[in-house]
Amino acid sequence: MIDMLKPAVIIFTLLSILTGIIYPLVVTGIAQVAFPSKANGSIVVKDGRAVGSELIGQSFTDPKYFWGRPSATTGFPDNAMASGGSNLGPTNPALADAVKARAAALIAADPGNRLPVPVDLLTASGSGLDPHISPAAAMYQAGRVARLRGLSEDKVKELISRNTEERWLGLLGEERVNVLKLNLELDTIGR
Amino acid sequence: MEAAKRKPAALKGLYRQAIIESFVKLDPRKMVKNPVMFVVEVVSVLTTALWFQALLGHGEAPAWFIGNITLWLWFTVLFANFAEALAEGRGKAQAESLRKMRKETTAKRIEKSFCIGGGVRPEERCIKVVSSTELRKGDVFLAEAGDLIPSDGEIVEGVASVNESAVTGESAPVIRESGGDRSAVTGGTTVLSDWIIVKVTADPGEGFIDRMIGLVEGAKRKKTPNEIALGILLSGFTIIFLVVCATLLPYSLYSAHSAGTGTPITITVLVALLVCLIPTTIGGLLSAIGIAGMDRMIRRNVIAMSGRAVEAAGDVDVLLLDKTGTITLGNRQAVEFIPAGGIDPVELAEATQLSSLADETPEGRSIVVLAKEKYGLRGETVHASGDHSMHFIPFTAQTRMSGVDIHGSEDTIIRKGAPDAIILYVEGLGNKVSDGVHTAVDKIARSGGTPLVVAKNGRAVGVVHLKDVVKGGIKERFAEMHRMGIKTVMITGDNPVTAAAIAAEAGVDDFLAEATPEAKLKLIREYQAGGRLVAMTGDGTNDAPALAQADVAVAMNTGTQPAREAANMVDLDSNPTKLIEIVEIGKQLLMTRGALTTFSISNDVAKYFAIIPAAFASTYPALGILNFMHLNAAILSAVIFNAIIIVILIPVALKGVKYRPLSAALLLRNNLLIYGVGGLLAPFIGIKLIDMALTAVGLV
Amino acid sequence: MSGQGWIQIGLYFIVLFALIKPLGAYMARVYQGERNFLTPVISPVEKLIYLLAGINAEEEMDWKRYAKVLLVFNFLGFLAVYGLQRFQAHLPLNPAGMSAVSPDSSFNTAMSFITNTNWQGYSGESTMSYLTQMLGLTVQNFLSAATGMAALVALIRGFARHSTKNIGNFWTDMVKTTLYILIPLSLVFSIVLVSQGVVQTFSKPKTATLVQTTKDDKGNTVTEQVIPVGPVASQIAIKQLGTNGGGFFNANSAHPFENPTPLTDFLEMLAILLIPGGLCYTFGVMVGDKRQGWAILAAMTIILVMFLAVTEWAEHQNNPMVARGAAEAGQTVAGLSSAAGLPAGNMEGKEVRFGITNSALWATATTATSNGSVNSMHDSFMPLGGLAPLLLIHLGEVVFGGVGSGLYGMLVFVIIAVFVAGLMVGRTPEYLGKKVEALEMKMASLVILIPVFIILVGTAIAVVTPAGIAGASNPGPHGYSEILYAFSSFGGNNGSAFAGINADTPFYNTAGGIIMYFGRYFIAIPILAIAGNLAGKKKVPVSAGTLPTHTPLFIGWLISVILIVAALSFFPALALGPIVEHLMM
Asked: Chain B contact for C545, CB < 8 A?
């Protein structure tokens, strides 16, 4: 037993140092030098203040903003300290209730819009921090945002397409619109 | 062969006995040896108790339902027992016929060793008549014409013809003599003529026949390695399904609670599901398959000393086959007459035939036959062709030739023999042997044949080509073996040239020429070191080491006692070709197990579709969609199917699945189609039919 | 599913298969002690470790010693992870000031990480200090993966060798795996991840002012967002490569900091199958018959594709509750794309950047292997979309499976398939020239039996005890599915969850910890026993009578055996969960 213990302890210690200290430190070093912004959370700074991360969704409920994915995080929506989804099952009536509330809120904000609602505006994201909506979901809201901001719908649509991220190489993932960036841009062109 | 003789006369009695045995085997101490069926017995007791409870009015389900399920669960156990009992019964029936000759006999024990010797029958005063049970190893007894040989033994003196039909089923008497390879006698056989003095080699109850009886009765049957491994797998499945069914009760409690409707699954239904799922089909037939495998060997007159040997036979990679008797007909035969220059072939044939008329050796007879077939010459015509007197000269070791002197109007002197002897003889008479004859002799020798030169009146008239004749059909047999992945190796004492020629003709994969017992042993060890399993036959004492080394060693029943002791099988017919059949029986045994295992497990899929929707109908009616067979009495039908399938498959278990010599890949494909896919589909049909029948008789 | 979806899946398999051979060949060189392009750099470090540990790298172990050493080493890992959690408040690198983790949660997490399960009862961003994440969890991400690979290599040696007792040296297998395979791959991979936005820093959580204030569930106004960061990329790389799956954050790879773009998603999915796939090739090389490796890979891939088809199909259907909710508000639902005629699909619990196709693909890959990371919430999958991952775990985590553990589990199924098929061709079954006999069957039966036993019995206990029932968060059969999934994940060492389950309780933490332990070591030890027994056997040469184990027929048979064993073991349990849920939908 003792003859096993000595190499076990030494190898465990050495491999722990290698994989638990040296490895993350090396990665951190390279990351901080090569990609400092990304390595530190892709923080968006406006007027010298951090207003969020490009990658982390924020909750928008004001009709003059584009709304993002519904979020089921605890505490408050898009709570970055409590990432997670709703975990409501496909036969759970609570899901229907949540969707009903979301659909009703969308109608309340834009009573004239009877278009079918893109599914991503009705369903909670997996992380609760999804920074994106589909272009369809953005277009669905374009009329409302344009009206409330006194912008032309074309202008808003142009903003949407400017903030639309394509599939990687046209192949991977889905087209998407970064809601925080889009709303920040809306704010800069006037409210 | 002789199968009819071994077949039990009273089939009815056999079945009756098996039915009685099925109940006797319910003894839990016996059942526990078969874990799968033991589980069925335990749960049958459980549902029986539930049935009584239901009869008293406190049942978890209607009494008729529990009662029916219980009944069929008991049938499941009984059917499995019946299969085993039937297989054992067939073995016992054979043992019975063997035992008849083992009935106590008297023995003429020779008390004093000085009475033996000199080739004369011992005097009466040396002999004491005792019961055969008093004979002990090392005792010596006398057996004379009409005597039943009281014990296994080794002949120390004398020659006798013996009727061994009791053991072999072969009625032709065999010669047994002291020394050499035919010195062993078996207790229970009868001396027909002459007398022999025999030394006892086995104590009473340990003789050859006793062992045979023990083996065929299944009393001494040990589980074979593959059977053990399969048993473990089946037990593993049984435990899995026990867990599956046991945990289903809490799941169903939760589901009924959470759905707010329905009742939890009943114990009876869980038990029914369990019995349907655990591999009862193969579990119930497993021992029957093993016993039947031994039985099939015996039906082919092969006694395996252990089930392990039978199983190993299926694994054999290399067959070592003695050339003579196995690959070739025992003797060389004339195949061609090659006349010397200027000689009419008919003349040569006639001369040779004449010289061989009195030659009773197989070679001699084959010459007469060849002359008749090729040139229409009949020995009689020669006889009748004149007033001749014929004087036959027999073969002697000194002259190394034989022949005939015909005295008549003109004398004809014909000699035939080994080339060097005849050439010496011809040249001694001052004549020259033509180059044609020399060439022919060389050519025949090179091709592996044996040349005989024929001289007529002092002149070499031609050459007879004698050669080993490969048995008909053997080449195809070897090709089959080759396809099965079994390497055939011919063992012969011939020189390499001859051996190579015959090997090529017979289509064996390899040969060992100028074989000595040591070379044979070495060859076996080499193959085994390479990871191969070797089978061989042998009869001589000098074969014993190789037999002991080989994985499957078949001794000829005519062989010596040491050979039989060293082997793990004895072929009562002493037919070396039987090795091939033995391999097939071994394979068939394993295949039957594999096929029925696959069938048994495949069956479960359908049973789920039958039972699960019915079991949870009250909690989740939506599961009814899975009942696409639209069964009314799903659970009972599945249980009945599960029981009946055992009975239906008994013939397969006893006869074995069909074996065809194909490559492993093809065999797998065929068996998967039949027993895998068939096993998936059959229960859907069977359960539906049973359900329809139950509905028709108004049981549900 | 759209054409775009098909292309992504196709591309995924093409890139995967392109990488399997070179990686597999490289790993074979590493395990066979041959020189490779990293030898000049790594060999000195390797030798230094042996020197310091005082071990002779040439000295080999029999299976019993190999198993003992493996257990001792893993126990040290358990102690380290448990201790770090309990004492993290007093240890450095804790900028967020995390307090000690509870004993039951620490036990669960320690067991979870040494067994390569990486079930997370806790929520990473609010529980673990950086030191615990790095020195506890990241280390075990490496070492538990290396343990699985070491045990696999020992088994491969059992097949490849003959007439010997020894199956290798556990220490060198561990060190080589870590130094030559896991660290280099992780290093490269983590830098790529950072370049896409995965965070890698030791600074404390970032604070940002919200663009629009919001209200918390108590009605208070929230003006700030606290964004947790940390040394994430370095852990994500190995958690994917080592089929660990334990995320830095609660949302795992659905979290934008763990998986920010479609490219990282693609690469992280590739990383899940990369080493398990490569090991099939390594196996082929080491046993001297590459066809055998390809055959196993083919069987794995076919099963994966079958289940992928089910998941993709199911998730592309409309979620009935979403449709109902929208209808109740007088609305209809449209899909993500404007493509007409397609159902909207089930986006509940999924991220827009991945869409449905990549979420279903990930769910299939992560449960086929014992990875268990998620980029979408399985709990919100459609009943059959959730059934497929669940059943993949039930297959025994052998479809690619965990690094090492997947292939050794698969080889056990091969042994069983060979056994039954071998009987059917009338020979004592053999695989790679090794006869399959009673001991192999005993151990193989154990390997199959143990997961079934612990999963079903664990679930059974949970569904009848108040503490267990309390875990279910959804009503009806789905709540039962949550419990079944949790115990399946424990037993299969997967780590994913129907995450609605409230499992950070003493009951689930303790039961889960125990089951993960059995699910790992009570498989690994029988495997080593098989390895030791096989190594001692002679090798039977191949002939026409040998059952070929690389043909389509055998591959089909192997697949059937795996599916039938799992289906028979779990059908009743599944019938009361996802199956009935689907039928009731």
From this structure: yes
